[in-house]
Amino acid sequence: MSGLKGKKILLGISAGIAAYKSLSLIRLFKKAGAEVKVILTPPAEAFVGKLTPATLADSPVYSELFDSHTGEWTNHVHLGLESDLMLIAPATASTISKMAAGQSDNLLLTTYLSARCPVWVAPAMDLDMWAHPSTGRNISRIMADGVRVIEPAEGELASGLSGKGRMEEPEILFQLVQDFFASSGSFNGKKVLITLGPTREALDPVRFISNHSTGKMGGEIAAAMLARGADVHIVAGPVADSVLPAGARITKVESALQMHAAASELFPKMDIAVLCAAVADYRPAEVSEQKIKKSGDEIEIRLVKNPDIAASLGAVKKAGQYLLGFALETNNEKENALSKLLKKNLDAIVLNSLQDEGAGFSVDTNKITILSAGGATFAYETKSKKEVAHDIAGFLEKTLP
User: Fold this and answer.
1) Residue range(s) occupied by CATH 3.40.50.10300 in the chain
2) CB–CB of 17/93 below 8 Å?
3) d(CA 339, CA 344)
4) Domain boundaries for CATH 3.40.50.1950 within the chain
């Protein structure tokens, strides 16, 4: 049975060319058994009108606070209270700025201010508008108010330019909503930091030191936490974009120093941190400004230690914050993992061993053991990384107060 069956979805459509995509979204929700009500901003009627969304939703479409002919009032409070989820797609730069400022000059905005259900937005705008500092401030503000932002995708835009700003595709938005309702929603309102992928430590403008991490495990954990309602912030090393789930806030970095800085900045605002990245322990002491030329049979490279991200966050962890680390070991696995757990002030650590078949980098499976600071041990069989991610999320559900 669909997790959407009987759920009440309130779909807000603001005035952007991506409004046509929302018609497909209505069909997907209805096919899954959801009840859909639609609110248009008045300018959005020029893009989709009322008849088509009303027909697809099998419900009247709302756009005005009252009917100018009859005086009949649209009860925006009722619309917000009776819904299980409010999704604004597309959310234009104008609508987002008004949400950030608490304005209420149309029915969609007054309903947003009255809504007690989770509110999600799927922004759509040109790439320069998305990149503008004011948009970034407005996005940060509404996220601080509890709104979940489904970041736009990259691709061709209505302006003819290509870049980030396309509203996420209806099929992906539908899947995110379906996953949200299919899960327990146990992390609603929780802010989760996830580090993932490798780091690259430059030798010169051409070469670097790195490792085989693909970021797949961290990406699956992020998706599992999103499905449970978390507000997920990812700090990602150089990984394929396909690894990064829609719906997360993403900071891309290259080096261990950059990852340390980004994670340290975000962590004070987080409830949970999952440190899944394969961070280089050392970096070259000197980075050549020019490509290092081949000379002689040997070359010496002096390395210096990188900051330990887990230890740094563990040292500033406050009451109520939860820190989950990862340990990839090749020998004395449990002893080494327990040592890290204690030294870095972690609440738990996920151990994987390269001795286990089906575990490690560049594979789609993993085998883990979770060790908690309280002394408990939880061992799991080899599973797909997606299943392992849900095991980890389930462990956190049971462990967190």
Assistant:
1) 191-399
2) no
3) 8
4) 8-182
Q: What is the pLDDT of residues 292-331, one digit of tens each?
A: 998 888 889 999 999 999 999 999 999 999 999 999 887 8
φ/ψ of residue 388, rounded to 5: -60, -40
* Angle at 207 (CA atoms; ends 203, 212), nearest 5 degrees: 105
Spatial neighbors of 162 by CB under 8 A, at least 6 apart, are: 127, 154, 155, 156
242-289 per-position pLDDT tens digit? 899 888 889 999 999 999 999 999 999 999 999 999 999 999 999 999
Per CATH, the architecture of 191-399 is what?
3-Layer(aba) Sandwich (3.40)
The values of phi and psi at residue 352, to 5°, are -125, 145
Judge contact between 347 and 322, C-beta under 8 A. yes
Residues 6+ apart with CB under 8 A from 398: none
**CATH T-level assignment (fold) for domain 8-182:** Rossmann fold (3.40.50)
pLDDT tens digit string along 205-244?
999 999 999 999 999 999 999 888 899 999 999 999 889 9
Residues catalogued as catalytic: 211
pLDDT tens, position by position, 168-186: 999 999 988 988 887 657 8
**91 in Cβ contact with 65 (< 8 Å):** no
Nearest to 109 by CA among 100, 99, 117, 119: 99
